[in-house]
Amino acid sequence: MTQQISPAQESSVIDQAPKQLFIDGQWVAAESGRTLDVIDPSTGQVLCSVADAAEADGWKALRAAERAQADFAAMAPRERSNILMRAFELMHERRDDLALLMTLEMGKPLAEAYGEVTYAAEFFRHFAEEATRISGSYQVAPGGGQRFLIHKQPVGPSIFITPWNFPLAMGTRKLGPALAAGCTSVLKPAELTPLSMLALADILKEAGVPDGVVNIVITSESGQVMEPLIRSGIARKLSFTGSTGVGKKLLEQCSEHVMRTSMELGGNAALVVFDDADLDKAVEGALAAKMRNSGEACTAANRIFVQRGVADEFARRLAEKMAEYPMGRGVDDGVRVGPLISAGQRDKVQDLVEDAVSAGADVLLGGEPAAGEGFFYPPTVLTGIPEQARVRREEIFGPVAPVAAFDTEEEAIAAVNDTEYGLSNYVFTNDLNRAIRVSEALESGMVGINLGVVSNPAAPFGGVKESGLGREGGDVGIDEFLETKYIGIAL
């Protein structure tokens, strides 16, 4: 969806957005009175200021979640389901404001923001349906004389830490299953993009979520505020989406009380194009896998391997298509590439491009930051990527497509698996046997076959190796928030 947004509309949605902490069902200022600025990455200017929590505010939120846990766990599954469905409906009713707010704070094109609102809401609908399907079992003991009753119960108060790149969907992907299972929570959104999650809190309150069940804490001191809560033993579950480095530190903190964890960490996704693939479909798939969110996605195609016979033609077509992507403020009509989230992220992308070029790569398109205000980096295609280039090992998180050639299937599999990460990969081929063979050999939690976007609320999302633990979404997503209890009954 595209439409021209006026400055008055921008100001209105910012003015009306909640800007305080959401604790125990109430909007409250930070105890210290501190605030932090939210920056528009397309201009570098301040959009607004929001409450900036300290440790004391975090404790208030966790205590509220602790008090609310027993009653919420006892709530009828159908009632929890109805709350989630109402939240789903409200998100669609307010999609215009949610999308615009997201574009202003994060920078993504408005059409993509609308897509994220739809995607984010779908987690509530999916888990509204799962809430009434939580089941156990009853069986006769193999040796007789006993019965086994298997019962599932909510894990308990949970802590969620979400990233800036999908500021709405990463929250609903965690809150959906938690609410369906009967778990209360404290959620800390990224300080760069807090407005979307605060707007969601308003929706959840209207949808009927009881006070204390969902608490939102924004802070510029994430470690100081969240670590004591994690180490407290009050919360029994942590779900984190972010970098592998931070995830490892959080796992250490969780070990103190053997806390349940879900970790969606770094990705270094590869996209493999075999010479029997439909090149038009492969290029379209690569555009989806690379350019979604301007490349700022953990599932983005970070490395593109193309069989040598079609490598030059593929790179040429990809560059032609990427050159057609208009770049600008996400609120402007027709824009397909918005700014990166910060000046630091833009500089990191440029550093990776310069490293690849100095190692011998060729620039087919782009390759330099855009001039002017905002944190823009143009669509870029690199070819002839040598093995020592850092783009073969590090997440780019930008609209840069590095293309390298390979000769054999075995060579491609080895190159894809030559990373500590294992979140998602993509394979383009018209050979069914090869598709199955290669997808089973790739070391990742998800594989797209002739498909550039694998994320779906109805499918399990997660990685292997240093890309994380656990799964979100699908029919297994709710299990991350349930404990299995065995009750033995003597007869």
Automatic annotation (TrEMBL):
GO molecular-function terms, A-Z: glutarate-semialdehyde dehydrogenase (NADP+) activity; succinate-semialdehyde dehydrogenase (NADP+) activity
Boundaries of every Aldehyde dehydrogenase domain copy: 27-487
EC number, UniProt record: 1.2.1.16, 1.2.1.20, 1.2.1.79
Keyword Heme attributed: no
Enzyme class: oxidoreductase
InterPro entries hit by this protein: Ald_DH/histidinol_DH (IPR016161), Ald_DH_C (IPR016163), Ald_DH_CS_GLU (IPR029510), Ald_DH_N (IPR016162), Aldehyde_DH_dom (IPR015590), Aldehyde_DH_Superfamily (IPR050740)
Active-site annotation: E264
UniProt protein name: Succinate-semialdehyde dehydrogenase/glutarate-semialdehyde dehydrogenase
